[in-house]
Amino acid sequence: MKYLQRALAVAEERGYFNAPELLRLQEEVPEWLRALAHEDGLAKLEARLGLPVPGALREYYACPQLACFLEASMDGEVFLKDPYVADGEPPQVVNWWGRPHLAIAFHGHSGMICAVRLGEEDPLVFWGFEDEPYEDKRGPPLSFSEWVFRHVDNHKARLDP
Length: 161
Fold this sequence. Notes:
single chain, 161 residues, 7 helices
């Protein structure tokens, strides 16, 4: 693990991956996400994208517990099950600023998509709508590894016992 080691270490130290809620969610991981834990699944995605899957996302897809943690703890849909994101096979690709971005989550109430810019090993994370990115005035975008780490490290609520 090169990119997500800090996030995994904190999650394991705090026992997040053993929480019953996460254990239940592991049974609900969608097939498309399970497929990306393997080289043949990644190869299919890369063929569809025409670009390599970034290293940080490869680590993420290889660790379904981390996806389950994000599904349980953030105000968003990580399993990409909602009908208005399911245009075609997940994960969805959006073009922002003339570059492809791969969806990693979306906010169910607003319809905003969370996506990473392809072409970088630890890509930047952006939010936006299918046709345009959202201008976040709170600061510069985070790398995917930092974005995941902050979700894990800042998690204060207890997961269901």
